[in-house]
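Exam revision sheet. Question 4 asks you to relate a sequence to its structure. Input first:
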Amino acid sequence: MSTKRPRIPAEVAAHVLSHFGRGGYPAGDWTESLISLIDRADAVNRAKLCATYPDYGDAVLLAKYDENGIAVLQAIAGGQAAA
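Answer key, structure tokens:
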């Protein structure tokens, strides 16, 4: 089993940026609920959600906990970087 982290697609980056009010564009209703759940979950449930939806999990965690996370997501959403 690979331990490599999944790449964050530009669309996912844009959805997460929108959720945090930092650009991007809104996700659909179900996906916005998923992003919100990952954002609000306790550690145990966040881990479960991130295991099932690793691209959204990585993007939310990047936005919340990495000091350069928003800039990285903005670059991904703009096609200037890959993560």
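Marking note for examiners. The chain has a mean pLDDT of 92.
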